[in-house]
Specification:
Layout lengths: L1 H21 L3 H20 L4 E4 L4 E4 L1 H27 L8 H22 L1 H10 L2 H8 L7 H29 L9 H45 L2 H6 L2 H68 L5 H40 L8 H17 L15 H27 L1
Helix pairs in contact: 2-8, 3-4, 4-8, 4-10, 7-8, 7-11, 8-10, 8-11, 10-11, 10-12, 10-13, 11-12
């Protein structure tokens, strides 16, 4: 009997959740499916020792999931530490194998990801339980059509880039290691996919937050035009003070709701930034090192071809080019989306400042001032671990550093080469 009562209670809970989902917009259901996939992938990789409880309708810490995460981390660590140590002892690690070194760095970064994610697992559970993102999306009625471009970009980043890397690895292996099976490339791709997964979660949150801020700005633009129109001499002459006061009160209610949604989106975005901050900094450091190494390896191959007349390995150069181009495109996508998010967040303040309050209602003035105070005090920024601001200038900062390292390495290499002559 207790088992039957518990089963009936679960069925009632699930039916209640399904009825609630029927009232959601289509884009909310799509985003919910995406979040379910992201959380499932987090659990699969061993990053998230929690599960969703239908009984309490929230995420709770789970001992079986914690044991599973610990086992996955141990298998991952033992396998890749042994693999890297074996390659090192046998002398198979070559500085010109930029792809292999890129895999080693991602494997080492993956071990650090486990430690960091476990330390903040409680904060992640609290964030997911307190997140009112879907209520915000349903309030704005964001259409799927307006999100098609962003969704395609997310799909390309999550699935297209790893697939292209996998095909490049197969091509590279057939050229360099004919004795190995193409399935052995999966052990190279697993650390890369696991390391980029957390970054993809944050990238999705940036895309969603940008879409919400865009709709806030659209509604503010409508309010702005009506507020300024109501205060023109002609409108003030046509409408009675009571009608104008009523309209200003309605607009004040809308502003109050928009201000609440603005704060919720900021909390949501900062929460996901904290969740992925260590992974972002780690991947940027890996991309910085691997890009510098890859460019330097190609420089050495070209100089050897010109000065020593050694054959230039074109297939290897093409493989290196793919592994140089894809991290660059990932950084460009993240920088562009972050800059557009910051622009949309700042546009809220610009629209509030353009509202004419000379003949507006007192309550409306108070709402505008309160909203402006929230926008000015929040000072929306994306700075993982407080080390690097994510904006449009991030690409220039990263690759200016790469160019500086390359100039130093090339100068030293040329000095050594000409001194030997």
């Amino acid at each position: 009997m207790p088992f039957l009562r518990a089963t009936a209670r679960r069925i009632r809970k699930s039916s209640r959740i399904s009825r609630r989902l029927k009232t959601w917009s289509l884009i909310s259901k799509v985003i919910l499916a995406g979040y379910a996939l992201m959380i499932s992938a987090n659990t699969l990789f061993g990053y998230f020792p929690a599960r969703f409880s239908l009984k309490h309708e929230k995420f709770t810490f789970s001992k079986p999931m914690a044991i599973y995460c610990l086992v996955v981390a141990m298998i991952f660590g033992v396998f890749y530490v042994q693999y890297v140590w074996k390659e090192f002892r046998s002398g198979q690690i070559d500085q010109r194998e930029a792809i292999k070194i890129y895999c080693y760095m991602n494997a080492c970064g993956g071990l650090l990801h486990y430690l960091y994610q476990w330390t903040i697992s409680g904060q992640i559970v609290d964030l997911l339980n307190q997140m009112s993102l879907f209520r915000v999306i349903n309030y704005f009625s964001i259409s799927v059509v307006s999100m098609i471009r962003a969704m395609l970009m997310v799909l390309v980043k999550i699935f297209g880039f790893p697939l292209l890397m996998q095909l490049t690895l197969i091509f590279h292996q057939r050229h360099k290691h004919l004795e190995l099976s193409w399935t052995s490339t999966f052990k190279t791709m697993i650390p890369i996919i696991a390391g980029s997964h957390l970054n993809n979660c944050f990238f999705c949150s940036v895309v969603i937050a940008k879409a919400i801020f865009n709709h806030i700005n659209k509604l503010l633009s409508v309010i702005l035009s009506e507020v300024n129109r109501l205060q023109t001499p002609l409108e003030m002459h046509l409408h009675k003070p009571f009608y104008r006061m009523q309209r200003f009160c309605d607009l004040a209610d809308q502003l109050d709701e928009l201000a609440t949604k603005y704060v919720l989106v900021h909390i949501y975005c900062q929460g996901f930034l904290g969740f992925a901050s260590f992974s972002l900094i780690m991947s940027m450091g890996i991309n910085l090192f691997s890009t510098t190494l890859g460019c330097y390896v190609q420089y050495q191959a070209l100089v050897d071809y010109v000065m020593l007349e050694t054959p230039y390995d074109v297939p290897q150069a093409l493989s290196h080019f793919v592994f140089l181009a894809l991290p660059y495109l990932e950084i460009v996508l993240l920088a562009n989306e972050s800059q557009q998010l910051l622009n949309e967040a700042r546009e809220v303040g610009n629209l509030l400042q353009r509202m004419n309050l000379e003949h507006a209602d007192v309550r409306f003035k108070q709402e505008v001032d309160a909203f402006w105070l929230k926008v000015s005090t929040i000072q929306f920024k994306l700075m993982p671990l407080g080390l690097l601001e994510l904006d449009g200038s991030m690409v220039n900062k990263m690759y200016t550093t790469v160019a500086g390292f390359l100039l130093f390495l090339i100068q030293n290499d040329l000095t050594v080469r000409f001194s030997l002559k």
